[in-house]
Specification:
single chain, alpha/beta, Quinone Oxidoreductase, Chain A, domain 1, Rossmann fold, seven-stranded mixed beta sheet, six-stranded parallel beta sheet, 12 helices, 27% helix, 28% strand, globular, zinc ion binding, ADH-like_N, oxidoreductase activity, acting on the CH-OH group of donors, NAD or NADP as acceptor, oxidoreductase
Length: 369
């Protein structure tokens, strides 16, 4: 267990009725409020939230108030990349105990629809996903969460690294879709936090050659540290030409497009070899993106849309456990719960020098340099 972490002595029948939370009232309006905790069920855990990573979607709700059909119509608790410590357990909980370090998978599916029964619960129409309107997130000092979607992390893993399980699971899901394995080449388009963790996932799945691109030098440097063999500065190099040169004119076997940039989504496709596969992870700002259909058909390209993840958290925790030092490199900015607005502003406006921002709902374990 990490130092300086206070462990409350709660029970399932004796805990506060309210907790402090960072609440998005409307665009650019974040306020610290007392919010209701609710009742613990027999399979629930009471979790003291220790670290929450800021995601691009949190920023988008903060500055736009919506993502597609999901609109902030009433106050919403932000945050969904989280880790914490168990401080009370329900009557029928057997896998967890008081004091366990955990991470929380932020989506709770219905468990009964055809998608859930097929193991593709990320596609569940009734999914309740944290910080996606109208479902509250976990930027709170305490949350009640089902044990089924909670996972232990090893004591040697920091809470901050544990919170990376969520974005890494996106990369793991993409890697499995693309069947990344030894002998395969991978191009990761966009070296933001999701792209950098996708590099880590591709490396863990055995990719023989990893190429990454971005417009920011600091992110490209980090991509090399994550496991990229070669990086492409898109402000100076043409992506298609460079990847062709690096693959003897054949193109790469697989692509993970993680930027969501309209031009990057088009260019990434053209880096593929015949029979190649591309997974679109980054969410573009517009609904429709023109793609080169003759290229897709003539090269028999397989295109995958990636929507979150399913059954990937255990693999992500294992990968992080084996890459603790690398994962620490992604952690760049640290804020208290009361500083949530500043954290979102910095993430929104300081992409050049900011990778993963961490908010501490309770004790602040680290501070900015």
């Amino acid at each position: 267990m990490e130092k300086n972490v206070e462990l409350p002595d709660f029970t399932k029948n004796n805990y506060p009725e309210t907790t402090k939370s960072a609440v998005l009232n409307k665009t650019f309006d974040i306020q610290l409020k007392d919010t209701k905790l609710g009742k613990m069920g027999s399979h629930d855990l009471l979790i003291k939230v220790m670290a929450v990573g800021i995601c691009g979607s949190d920023v988008h709700y903060y500055d736009h108030g919506r993502i597609g059909d999901f609109v902030v119509k009433k106050p919403l608790i932000s945050g969904h990349e989280s880790s914490g410590i168990v401080v009370a357990v329900g009557d029928e909980v057997t896998k967890f105990k008081h004091g366990d370090k955990v991470v929380m998978e932020p989506g709770i599916p219905c468990g009964k629809c055809k998608y859930c029964l097929a193991g593709k619960y990320n596609l569940c129409p009734q999914m309740k996903f944290m910080a996606t309107p109208p479902v509250d997130g976990d930027l709170s000092q305490l949350i009640i969460y089902p044990d089924e979607f909670t996972y232990k992390i090893p004591n040697e893993m920091s809470y901050e690294v544990g919170s990376l399980s969520e974005p890494l699971s996106v990369g793991v899901h993409a890697a499995q879709m693309l069947s990344i394995q030894p002998g395969k080449s991978v191009f990761v388009s966009g070296a933001g936090p999701v792209g950098l963790l996708a590099i880590m996932a591709a490396k863990a799945f055995g990719a023989s050659k990893i190429i990454a691109s971005d417009a920011e030098p600091e992110r490209l440097a980090c991509a090399k540290k994550m496991g990229a063999d070669t990086v492409i500065d898109v402000t100076e190099q043409d992506v298609k030409t460079t990847t062709n040169d690096l693959t003897n004119g054949e193109g790469v076997n697989t692509v993970i497009e993680a930027s969501g940039n309209v031009h990057a989504e088009q260019d990434a496709l053209l880096t593929l070899s015949r029979g190649g596969k591309i997974a679109y992870v980054g969410m573009p700002a517009q609904d429709e993106i023109p793609l080169n259909m003759p290229f897709i058909q003539g090269h028999e390209i397989q295109i995958f849309g990636v929507f979150r993840y399913a059954n990937d958290y255990p693999i992500s925790i294992e990968i992080l456990t084996e890459n603790l030092e690398k994962a620490e490199m992604l952690l760049t900015n640290f804020y208290s719960l009361a500083e949530t607005k500043s954290a979102l502003e910095n993430t929104r406006t300081n992409k050049q020098h900011s990778l993963k921002t961490i908010i501490y709902p309770n004790e602040q374990l680290r501070k900015n340099n």
